[in-house]
Amino acid sequence: MLQTVRGFTKYMKFSIGVLFSCFSLFPVQVIAERAPITMENIHLEFREPSEHLTFFSDQFNPASVESERGGPGWRMFHGGDGTEARVILYNHCRCARVMDYPTFANGKKSNDAKDTALKVRWFADRGVAFYAPLRKMSDKIDSRYGRGVESVEVFHHLTQWVRKQHGSKAQLCYVGYAEGGSAALYSSVFFEGHHVAMSPPSKASPFMLTERSFTESPEYYKRANNLTVLFGSEEISDKAQKPRFEAFQALSGVTTKTVPGVKKGQMSFSANLPIVGPEIMRACGFW
Fold it and tell me: What is the CATH number of the domain that holds 86?
């Protein structure tokens, strides 16, 4: 019996040794949970040291845009000649970040194109400068940066860049859709100007880093200035969207509006620009 136990123990030692040897052959990635942070400290998670922002060489060519989107800093769409007194700083939705740009711009289906270059032209034709950096195709592992940090980092750098170009007296309006709309919630707390958050989600947001949504954070929403939240009139019939819209409606000092006839996911459609564009202009205080 004793020999049997000794043999089994020897076998177990051998097996455990082999097991650890096998693990040593393959890298094991451990993703640690990070503690919540305050919005005042989000800059500690920025990855770009300066506002390295450059224009696309041909923003009306989706293939060219896609080929130039990488590298340090950000490439951006732009409209206007740099002398305008009214300026929009635009932040894209998540789909622009995770999709190749030709698919995003042209749409997977008919009528769902979201070409940023057309938005640029629409606002520039009305005397408004428009700047829209195309955010990086963040990796799937680090969704914290892609969903919660990068859009804010873009607004910080873009604000400095625009002030150098247009001067301190220019009227700035921070606009974003979906994931980018959440960045406009942030900008309403920390930046002067007007702020337009279109269909901002509760999770894909800088406020996810605090583990509470914007509407659950009085220390932030009470400081919001000139904030307008836009949802499509058909969008809020959705069971998930309606409570979010109502949560914003309950906040004093925050303006909420619906855009007629716009359904869920359609706020940034190129086809809806004649409807959505005027609402943005009014919310920005430009009309």
Answer: 3.40.50.1820
Q: CA 39, CA 99: separation in Å to the nearest integer? A: 28
Does 4 score more than 50 pLDDT?
A: no
Could you read off the pLDDT of 127-173 as tens digits, one per residue?
A: 999 999 999 866 555 678 888 999 999 999 999 999 999 999 999 99
Q: Which pLDDT score, from 0 to 100, does residue 241 have?
A: 86
Taking CA atoms, 203 is separated from 11, 101, 259, 282, in Å, by: 50, 24, 23, 27
Pairing state of beta strands 129-133 and 74-79? Answer: antiparallel
Q: Is residue 38 part of a domain?
A: no
Asked whether residue 189 is assigned to any structural domain, the reply reads yes
Q: Which domain holds residue 246?
A: 52-283
Put simply, whether the predicted model's pTM sits higher than 0.85 gets the answer yes
Q: Which of 166, 186, 142 is nearest to 43 (CA)?
A: 186
Rounded Cα gap, residues 187 and 283, in angstroms: 15
Task: Decide: 224 and 200 in contact? Cβ < 8 Å.
Answer: no
Counting the structural domains of the chain, the total is 1
In a domain, 4, yes or no: no
Distance CA 147, CA 179 (A): 7
d(CA 88, CA 123): 9
What pLDDT score was predicted for residue 38? 93
Are residues 215 and 252 in contact, defined by beta-carbon separation less than 8 angstroms? no
3-state secondary structure of 233: coil
- pLDDT digit string (tens) for 231-257? 999 999 888 889 999 999 999 999 999
Q: The tokens of 187 are what?
A: 């900008």
Nearest to 114 by CA among 284, 261, 240, 270: 270
Beta-bridge mates of residue 89 = 131, 174
Q: For residues 209 and 46, what is the distance between their CA atoms, to the nearest angstrom?
A: 13
